[in-house]
Each structure stands twice: as structure tokens, then as C-alpha cells.
Amino acid sequence: MALFTWSEKYSVKVAEIDEQHKKLIGLVNRLNDAMRQGQGKQALSGVLKELVQYAANHFATEERIMLANGYPDYQEHKTKHDKITKTVLDVQAQYEQGQTNITFELMDYLANWVDKHILGTDMRYSSFLVAKGVR
Fold first, then answer.
1. Residue 32 and residue 28: Cα distance in Å, rounded?
2. Cβ neighbour number for residue 118 with a 10 Å cutoff
3. CATH topology of domain 13-131
């Protein structure tokens, strides 16, 4: 059962970023499905690793586009990226060391990341970048 389904409400109107957000939704859904199906640590670890790699690549893409277009709230946005990255890396390290499990609490955090970060923080740059001609 998917936590999220892509819809236009998630679109920031920048194709490269929208495609990456679709991948994020897919990764969160895969992790949720693996957890609910009781898949082993290897399967969960693999999806979590993909999520960490995704975050690094996606945040670098957003930050590159923001910097190239003079987005005025770049530093604030980057600070939020840094906080999310630290949290995801901490969870991954704790999971790999057997100190935590993939839980409904973690899935809630990831669901909030998708909803609040895309619909809140990312939507703030959308109109700015579109006005600059970024599509």
C-alpha cells in the first residue's frame, strides 16, 4: 500500500526536480512496503541506502539550480537540507549497527519530509525559478 501517489500538487514546475521528487515518493513507498511485509534487514538496508544517496543527489541538484538563479533564500533552504541529511544518515548508521529498526515512527518522519518539505519549503522557490525561466 503506497503512502504517497504523485500528483500535480507536488510539482514545483521544474522538470528535473519534479522527476527527482517522483523518485523520492517511490523510495519512501518501497521502504514502507518492505517494512510492512517484514522483509529482511538486507532489503530494508538497500532501500535506506538508496534514500541516503537520493537525498545527497537531489539536494545538490536543488542547491545548484538555486545558486545559478540567485534564489534569495538559498542559505535557509540549504540549512534545512543539511538537517534532513544528518537525520537520514543518523538513522542509516543506527539501523546498520542494530540500534534501531525501520518503524512507523521513521515512516511518519519520511512522510512529513515529503509533504512538508515539497509542499512547503520547495514550493517557496517554485514561482521564483519559474519567473527566471527555469523549467
1. 6
2. 21
3. Four Helix Bundle (Hemerythrin (Met), subunit A) (1.20.120)
